[in-house]
Amino acid sequence: MAGAPTVSLPELRSLLALGRARLFDVRSREEAAAGTIPGALNIPVSELESALQMEPAAFQALYSAEKPKLEDENLVFFCQMGKRGFQATQLARGLGYTGARNYAGAYREWLEKEG
Prior knowledge:
Layout: E1 6-7, H1 9-17, E2 22-25, H2 29-33, E3 41-42, H3 45-52, H4 56-63, E4 75-78, H5 83-94, E5 100-103, H6 106-113
Parallel strand pairs: 1-5, 2-3, 2-4, 4-5
Helix pairs in contact: 3-5
């Protein structure tokens, strides 16, 4: 998909092994509850814009996680098939998160190869 930097499964594996990526599952809470990539923070795409514009303390209170910084590298967004992850990546980049990337293979590929 043009317009948003992507990450492949082998690269994602490497980044996760090195602790150099933050994963964001932008599927619904119900979808994420049924299974997600270990370590991913679930923020449904419908909430993402407001979440990324929150004060850090409010983000922490709501999501029990540190809010990403604009300059953070390898903020990896994913969904089930790729479309919402792509939208989330574009949204985050539009808000100034320069390290936002889309895991285009999405949870479907992860489940198939890693599950």
